[in-house]
Amino acid sequence: MSEQLLAVQDLEVSFATEDGLLRAVGGVSFTVSRGEAVAIVGESGSGKSVTVMTLMGLTRSPNARFGGTAMLHGEDLIGASETKLEAIRGKEIAMIFQDPISALSPVQRVGAQIAEQIRAHEKISKAAALERAIELMGRVGIPNARERARAYPHEFSGGMRQRVMIAMALSLSPSVLIADEPTTALDVTIQAQILDEIRQLSAEVNNGVIFVTHDLGVVADIADRVLVMYAGRLVEQGTVDDIFYDPQHPYTWGLLGSVTRVDRDPPRRLPAIPGQPPSLIKPPEGCPFQPRCPHAFDRCRELPPLAPQLPDIGHLDRCWLKPSDKRALRETDGRIGLTEGAAS
Predict the structure, then answer these.
(1) Smallest Cα–Cα separation from 105: which of 49, 142, 154?
(2) DSSP code per residue over 302-330
(3) Closest CA to 195 of 207, 182, 213, 214
(4) pLDDT of 91-119, one tens digit each?
(5) What global pTM score does this model have?
């Protein structure tokens, strides 16, 4: 079996607000192994980015509350001191941010920014660090890397800025790489190039990758395992084949049904899950998807556990429906769509 790099157990993140306690992440558990790509999917506000930013120590504030553990090489990222996190962040766990123009300093040349991260963790001269930065920029597909290293972020296109972020994130060969919506602002051709570069460079260092995305096409292309989040909780997890060919949770059915199929006639209306995600300050009783689920029944007023779909103990979902009923219901949803009631 592959070496386990990261083990997140019962992660909880909440924020004190004027309106009450906002529970952004509620009891999330997962692992990442060497050579594995794990995708976290779900609607905006489901807790995906908060989960991974907490692993990086980027959600710490006076109003934040944390629970659970996230063990990386025997070190708990959740309870680690700021000094310890500074030593880990960038070297052992690194992140490609969704918006590189905000993540990069506008007043520093990009080569200097990459070199600065290298020198923060290694005893190396400025010249040597800059040479490594130039080499990395060339490897991620930036032409004329030596010349472009002297440019500022605003002088790059969106795709080239994202390549700079990839070079920076991989500059120290981290064990775990987090990619938070790395292709959102890019056209589909550049998206494919960026994903290929992340995949190839990660394979070279044999690390683990966490992809945060709402794009199921990206998930199908790059992930080994998928975590589906809703209202701060995991509602389903399994391999790519599990999620795409045998999804068990009605929310997952809705996500898949919201993708327009090229092998079918175009729908009368764009598919969508009816309703809105619930308030994380005053969540609904029991299953958080209950108010939007066409198959909710009395028992859904209790929160179901994240349980395995026997005999496949690696495929988990959080739903009270009987496994024997799910296939027929899923096929019905696939024909009429979860949006039919809302559209009519």
Answers:
(1) 154
(2) SPPP-EEETTEEEEEE---S-HHHHHHHH
(3) 182
(4) 999 999 888 888 999 999 999 999 999 99
(5) 0.90
